[in-house]
């Protein structure tokens, strides 16, 4: 799976319950919240998305996961709002001379992670965007806050050189049975990974089925008024080809007035469907009820999505429950 944000761990947590060989490739272009503050203080890859993925795939006891995820509520100027796991990842990055990739592998062993967690690059990246009015901004949080129509996104390394994914990331993509993109913010969680040149090329060249889990809601400052076909058009345009094989689309309506838009202010309206537009881009469309409503928010139902992903492998679902092992 390739992505970042809050949607990726939901699917990974459900996959973790199954007999699936999982590799999560996680964005390193986040510059908001605790991750952004740590990145400003210490020149390390932003740890937040990596932290959540590690917890989703960890076999540690629940109490240790809660400690790792604990976020300080102190009024201390530095620690307030920071998750303990973010600080641990930052510390391991400083201790490891070979970058964040090896640090995350070491932490994966410490946390008894089942599967692989790979940072998309071995250095912190900067997300850049050009808007429809021709203006350009750098930084994920700045881009989202601009509330303009994004025409093009790309990433740059800290030294100005084009970023590269490490060999293990490319090998995982080429050896996979499925490449799953999302769910997650189109421009700030998914595209930053694909814009790493050798990573994006590998996704286009692999013989694996490339599956896109379309977002349920449009997102302020990113995908306002987008249909599901618009999401795929953006991905295809950035990669220069129609590379998405299958799209998972939620068709269950979100009840009116259910969502708390103060709490989830970045999400606007339910994504509209354009099945004709998807098919014109060569996509197989799988539509179903993938909706989970909780805490007055709208989420993907991880179990429903994972069942569909496993069906696409051609194996019976019972195989993943260990019946054939």
From TrEMBL:
GO cellular component: cytoplasm
Coarse class of the protein's main subcellular location: cytoplasm
Subcellular location field: Cytoplasm
Keywords annotated in UniProt: Cytoplasm
GO annotation terms (biological process): regulation of cell shape
Top-rank taxon, per record: Bacteria
InterPro entries in alphabetical order: CofD, CofD-like_dom_sf, Gluconeogen_factor
Pfam families associated with the record: CofD
Gene3D superfamilies according to UniProt: CofD-like domains
Record-level Gene Ontology MF annotations: LPPG:FO 2-phospho-L-lactate transferase activity
SUPFAM superfamilies hit by this protein: CofD-like (SSF142338)
Function description: Required for morphogenesis under gluconeogenic growth conditions.
NCBIfam families the UniProt entry points to: CofD_related (TIGR01826)
Family statement drawn from the similarity comment of this UniProt entry: Belongs to the gluconeogenesis factor family.
Full protein name: Putative gluconeogenesis factor
Source organism of the structure: Liquorilactobacillus satsumensis DSM 16230 = JCM 12392
């Amino acid at each position: 799976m390739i992505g970042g944000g809050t949607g990726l761990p939901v699917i990974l947590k459900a996959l973790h319950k199954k007999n699936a060989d999982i590799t999560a490739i996680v964005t390193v272009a986040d510059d908001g919240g605790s991750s952004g503050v740590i990145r400003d203080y210490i020149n390390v890859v932003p740890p937040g998305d990596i932290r959540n993925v590690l917890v989703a795939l960890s076999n540690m006891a629940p109490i240790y996961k809660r400690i790792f995820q604990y976020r300080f509520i102190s009024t201390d100027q530095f620690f307030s709002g920071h998750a303990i796991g973010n600080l641990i990842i930052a510390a391991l990055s400083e201790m490891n001379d070979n970058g964040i990739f090896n640090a995350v592998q070491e932490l994966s062993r410490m946390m008894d992670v089942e599967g692989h967690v790979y940072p998309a690059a071995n250095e912190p990246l900067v997300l850049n965007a050009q808007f429809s009015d021709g203006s350009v901004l750098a930084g994920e949080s700045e881009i989202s806050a601009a509330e303009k129509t994004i025409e093009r996104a790309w990433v740059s390394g800290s030294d100005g050189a084009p970023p590269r994914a490490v060999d293990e990331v490319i090998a995982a993509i080429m050896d996979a049975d499925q490449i799953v993109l999302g769910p997650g913010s189109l421009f700030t969680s998914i595209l930053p990974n694909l814009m790493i040149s050798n990573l994006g090329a590998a996704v286009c060249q692999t013989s694996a089925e490339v599956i896109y889990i379309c977002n349920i809601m449009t997102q302020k400052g990113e995908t306002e008024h987008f249909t599901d076909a618009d999401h795929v058009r953006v991905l295809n345009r950035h990669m220069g080809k129609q590379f998405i094989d299958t799209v998972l689309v939620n068709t269950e309506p979100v009840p009116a007035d259910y969502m708390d838009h103060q709490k989830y202010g970045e999400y606007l309206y339910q994504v509209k469907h354009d099945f004709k537009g998807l098919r014109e881009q060569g996509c197989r469309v799988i539509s179903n009820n993938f909706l989970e409503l909780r805490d007055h928010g709208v989420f993907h139902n991880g179990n429903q999505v994972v069942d569909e992903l496993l069906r696409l492998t051609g194996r019976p679902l019972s195989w993943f429950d260990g019946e054939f092992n």
